[in-house]
Amino acid sequence: MQxxxxxxxxxxxxMNWSLVGSPLRPTEEDQRIMMMLSIPALSHSMEHTDVVVxxxxxxxxxxxxxxNTRVQAFDHSADMIASVWYPNSRNSSxxxxxxxxxxxxxxxxxxxxxxxxxxxxxxxxxACRVVLAESARVLKRTGLLVLRCFIRPERSETLENVFAAxxxxxxxxxxxxxxxxxxxxxxxxxxxxxxxxxxxxxxxxFPDRDQLAKCTGWSRTAIDTIGAYKGxxxxxxxxxxxxxxxxxxxxxxxxxxRQGHYELxxxxxxxxxxxxxxxS
Length: 280
Hints:
This protein is of the alpha/beta class. Helix content is 38%, strand content 20%.
């Protein structure tokens, strides 16, 4: 049932992909940081380097990979693959409709696993653990896992805080507003929130979309993308920094953490992980 719900969300999301912006999609600054963190994993192979992209995020598939890199993209959504995927013109690349929890790869066979916002689209902390374990399984001992993650503040803000920040001119994009609403209503004890609850909270705060567009200067087209969440019971997961470290610790060690300088970048850190038995 959860898989069907997730597919519904991503069918809607794929239709609105061109309207999605920062912080939901990585910026050029994020791309530079992610490539910089990835370089050590790409320097060990004399022949070819294998990179797995979790999802079909164009900003990652089309990074300036070294010429000997083979890029494999795995995404569970046929709609996202059909709408967003296109091959890297400089490197060997292909896509498969595959669950990240069960990648069709041998143990210790991949130099780099990289992804953007992957944990958020998983329905629970348990699902995050499975993907972390699976990533650690397929990585070579010299490999790295590089992920930009959407995390809640250790002390969650309230919807009242979000509303006040919006009207004080402190929220610069609709996508930033949507993520702040989502994180504000994520229960501390669950780490995840139903997508339809994000929609309901938004409707409660901003029942007049024309007025929201007028006071912010955002287009109704962008604001109306929230409609993709209506009636969707699939869940998004937003751990805090400490919660994510705890989820990761049995499988991978945090090697480095960086972040950009754009709006909400502090909630979108880029983690570089090593498999737990490779700490040097």
